[in-house]
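Quick one, tokens below:
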């Protein structure tokens, strides 16, 4: 949102206010982007006291039952986010679709913003149609076209039959965003969330997408979801170092000095995101176990929930530190453009994908949830900018690193 705000300000004579939940606002350092203001929306949700963000259930409840009234007051009162200024338009992250009815009630124009690929939104926007065709049940399970009568589904089947995304991606039914859950209850809840998002988005004419036209392959041959005007505005990236430093959390710059001492292309950068989920926690711990024994120098970004750090072997941090570097919050863009970085082991979050592609860094992909599997499919099969880590077995991890760092496959992936 901050990157989009900066872009809008640079394009014209407008001022932009970015409103974020209070628990995010408290974690951000002072913002200094000309023409952009940052304000806090009361969420009614308290932090858990140990510095971790609130859990999804409490936050989702707050978005539906508490925050809409707070946003309405902020938009209409003199002491709200705009004061005496007039609000001409609301740009709403579609994952915060609760704000769409607020804008409608106040008679304000609304533009949607999808922070990921258009390909991901397409799979979500098609859910109602797929349900009408009997291909998705109300509980979120998929029934493949050739197995509707039997009610059985091969979750490893390619989704090409659904005619949503290119067959070249080799995506399976189980890779679709509404299926990636830890239980049947959460799967049903996730489907309900997406349905609510899609239904609310029907009232929006235009959607900004943090991506480029076509996204590669034959994606552009598919009709825009629900007849929306789709406006690719990406990739939205910070270009000025001062903007990165003042707009985001405080970063640990000592790793840049460490990188300066490493050989060109020798470092493996590892990060599985900020708010890593728990679906594959055990496997991620296994991957981390091998880092201490790898030959190449390792740079690890470790700011993740305690559940992702707990249970690592005794002495793990010290072992990695012997030939590597661990930082709590990494200056990721500066790391990825550094000549010492040879590859990036990642979860395939979209912002990280854009940053890696921007700097031509080879990727080893280990998706966790949500849109990660679709992003991974594009990286591996469409753009050929990385390879997939199929399992967390020690031999497989080392094999993938060798292929990317030393093999012809890795040279093909690199755009440097």
């Amino acid at each position: 949102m901050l990157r989009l705000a900066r872009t809008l300000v640079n394009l014209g004579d407008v001022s932009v206010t970015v409103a974020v939940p209070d628990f995010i606002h408290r974690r951000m350092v002072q913002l200094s982007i000309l023409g952009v203001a940052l304000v806090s929306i009361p969420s009614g949700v308290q932090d858990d006291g140990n510095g971790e963000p609130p859990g999804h259930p409490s936050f989702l409840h707050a978005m539906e039952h508490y925050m809409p009234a707070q946003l309405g007051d902020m938009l209409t009162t003199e002491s709200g986010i705009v004061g005496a200024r007039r609000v001409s338009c609301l740009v709403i992250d579609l994952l915060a679709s609760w704000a769409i009815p607020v804008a409608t009630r106040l008679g304000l124009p609304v533009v949607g913003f999808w922070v990921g690929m258009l390909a991901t939104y397409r799979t979500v926007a098609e859910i109602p149609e797929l349900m009408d065709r009997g291909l998705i049940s109300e509980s979120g399970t998929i029934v493949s076209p050739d197995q509707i009568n039997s009610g059985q589904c091969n979750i490893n089947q390619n989704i090409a039959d659904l005619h949503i995304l290119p067959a070249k991606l080799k995506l399976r039914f189980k890779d679709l965003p509404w299926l990636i859950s830890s239980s049947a209850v959460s799967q049903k809840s996730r489907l309900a969330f997406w349905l609510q998002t899609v239904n609310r988005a029907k009232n929006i004419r235009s959607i900004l997408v943090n991506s480029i036209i076509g996204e590669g392959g034959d994606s552009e041959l598919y009709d825009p979801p629900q007849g929306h005007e789709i406006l690719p505005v990406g990739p939205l990236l910070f270009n000025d170092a001062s903007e990165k430093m003042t707009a985001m959390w405080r970063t640990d710059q000592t790793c840049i000095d460490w990188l300066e001492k490493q050989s060109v292309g020798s470092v493996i950068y590892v990060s599985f995101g900020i708010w890593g989920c728990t679906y594959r926690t055990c496997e991620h711990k296994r991957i981390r176990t091998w880092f201490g024994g790898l030959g190449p120098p390792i740079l690890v970004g470790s700011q993740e929930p305690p559940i992702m750090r707990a249970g690592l072997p005794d002495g793990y941090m010290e072992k990695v530190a012997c030939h590597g570097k661990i930082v709590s919050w990494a200056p990721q863009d500066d790391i990825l453009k550094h000549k010492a970085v040879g590859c990036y082991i990642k979860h395939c979050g979209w912002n990280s994908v854009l940053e890696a592609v921007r700097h031509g860094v080879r990727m080893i992909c280990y998706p966790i949830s949500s849109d990660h599997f679709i992003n991974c499919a594009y990286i591996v099969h469409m753009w050929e900018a990385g390879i997939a880590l199929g399992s967390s077995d020690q031999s497989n991890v080392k094999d993938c690193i060798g292929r990317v760092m030393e093999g012809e496959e890795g040279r093909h992936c690199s755009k440097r």
